[in-house]
Write a structure and sequence with these properties.
Elements: H1 13-20, E1 24-28, E2 33-35, E3 43-49, E4 52-57, E5 63-69, E6 74-75, E7 90-93, E8 97-103, H2 104-113, H3 115-141, H4 143-159, E9 160-163, E10 166-169, H5 175-182, H6 186-198, E11 202-205, E12 208-211, H7 214-220
Antiparallel strand pairs: 1-8, 2-7, 3-6, 3-8, 4-5, 4-7, 9-10, 10-12, 11-12
Helix pairs in contact: 2-3, 3-4, 4-5, 4-7, 5-6
GO cellular component, one term: cytosol
InterPro entries: cNMP-bd_dom, cNMP-bd_dom_sf, Env_Response_Regulators, HTH_CRP, RmlC-like_jellyroll, Tscrpt_reg_HTH_Crp-type_CS, WH-like_DNA-bd_sf, WH_DNA-bd_sf
Organism: Bacillus timonensis
Length: 234
């Protein structure tokens, strides 16, 4: 395997150092929740190691996966500068993780005191919102097939590893987990993946997808080739 092609919208070095200055670091096991939707929110989190998934429950009891976060990414950020804040999403650990905890009130105070940090945080949030908007645009406008293809493109930008055989998505996924990213059913994803495999566009080995023809996938959804930092799964 050659180099990773990770294209992530990371927080700046100054913000990373600020978050790492938190006086609490916790270790949590895979399969546990960092927080759940509706819980009172008094903390933000910086992922030091491991991976977490941020998702939203739907009215029919299913789940929409919004992003996967890894090292030096913040979760819980949407609670800043709100009264009586509650977490809007669930955050599940996909791997054993080490996480820095910072009190919401402390971070707000430090951002008020340091205009440069506040500006850096605003830029990071702006990029974060742009990624979210493009994801929802694809889910709404492109239909089930387009949502899956768009998700595969985003995953290559976030977790793609170039190999002699194509681009390996270095993230283990069941078909149900992939369906959760696409706001569709596992059965629909099964059919669409089977079609892509039969065309030789992808292959799947033990839950890992390799993209052999990314051009085909992009062409099918008339991909606009947005900058990779906006077209990602984090």
């Amino acid at each position: 395997m050659s180099q990773l092609t990770l294209q992530k919208t990371k927080i700046s070095n100054d913000l990373t150092e600020l978050m790492k200055s938190a006086n609490q670091v916790i270790k949590m096991a895979k399969g546990t929740y960092l927080f759940r939707e509706g819980m009172k929110a008094s903390e933000l989190y910086l992922i030091l190691s491991g991976r977490v998934r941020v998702s939203k429950g739907t009215s029919d009891g299913s789940e929409l996966s919004l992003r996967v976060c890894s090292q030096n990414e913040i979760v819980g950020e949407l609670t800043l500068f709100t009264d009586q804040p509650k977490y809007l999403f669930d955050c599940l650990l996909l791997e054993d993780s080490e996480i820095a905890v910072i009190q919401k009130d402390d971070l707000e105070r430090k951002l008020f005191e340091n205009t440069n940090l506040a500006f850096e945080f605003m830029k990071w949030m702006s990029d974060h919102f742009r990624k979210t908007q493009t994801k929802f645009r694809d889910l709404v406008l492109l239909g089930k097939k387009g949502a899956l293809y768009s998700t595969l493109v985003r995953m290559t930008n976030s977790y793609g590893v170039h190999t002699d055989n194509g681009i390996l998505i270095d993230l283990h996924l069941t078909n149900q987990e992939l369906a959760n990213f696409c706001a569709t059913t596992r059965e629909s994803v099964n059919r669409m993946l089977h079609e892509l495999r039969s065309l030789g566009v992808i292959s799947v080995t033990k839950g890992y997808i390799t993209i052999h023809d990314l051009v085909y996938i992009k062409k099918e959804i008339q991909c606009e080739d947005c900058p990779a930092k906006y077209c990602s799964i984090e």
